[in-house]
Amino acid sequence: MGLRRSGRRRTERPLIGENDGVIVASSRIAHAVKARHGELARIAREMSDAQWHGSSLLPGWSRLTILCHLRYGALASVRMTDDTLSDQPTSYYPLGRSEQRPSTLVPAPQETAKDVVESFVNANMALDRRWTHMGETDWQRTIREPGDNGDLGAIPLANLALLRLTEVEVHGTDLDLGLSRWSDEFVDAAFPMRVHWLPTRRSNRATADTTIEGRWQLAADDGTAFVISAFGSKVSVEEGAVDDAPCTIRGTKHALLGFLLGRVELDTLHVSGDPGVASMFHAAFPSP
Fold this sequence. Notes:
The chain is built from twelve helices and six strands. By secondary structure, the protein is of the alpha+beta class. The two termini are 30 Å apart.
């Protein structure tokens, strides 16, 4: 394909930060998670049942649906952290995503919205206690999924913390309750991680159209650029701008992260090159 390789490097697993060591980045991410948990708790306890049953910004999801989802994420993160530190295989959805996920999006029988709020806050506090005192060796431990129940891939616990920050930042704004916009801490860490995770999302999502092949360049206004190539089962991510990409999708890091997460539409970004190739990106790499 004649790629110009000056200043480019290929990586095979997600990154937490571009320049920081795992312990520094992961500690900051864990504290950012705790701060967002606190913000969510303060707002959640002020909400009425009617507000919780109202619509969120996420199509088809009520605010209570989001709260149940975030509660499960905290509980799953505690369990997966404990399992990994004990060198045990673990899964985000032990019964399988398709079988278990629907039940995690609704209250338990006889459970009120207020009950969900309190259990949500308690689950967050338990997770914060686990993560606040973890050290470098702990954060570098790799999550080991059962062979028949892969979902996240072989990622370090450090990335699990960033996935949790993604949940609480993104779904926090989905609640449409006036929570602060996505933090720079989140955007700076999550944008490169989400790009490097695209091969995994293409391989473990049934909705991915693996017949789509091509190359896409995501270029942030601050100079950060990635080229994603997909040909058959082979997917690669390379860092650094090129001149020969079939299409380039450009915007702020915040907007490009929103695009990867399905919160920003392609037509709000600047597209150069082949618009048809650009339009196939989400079919090739489905949003969460």
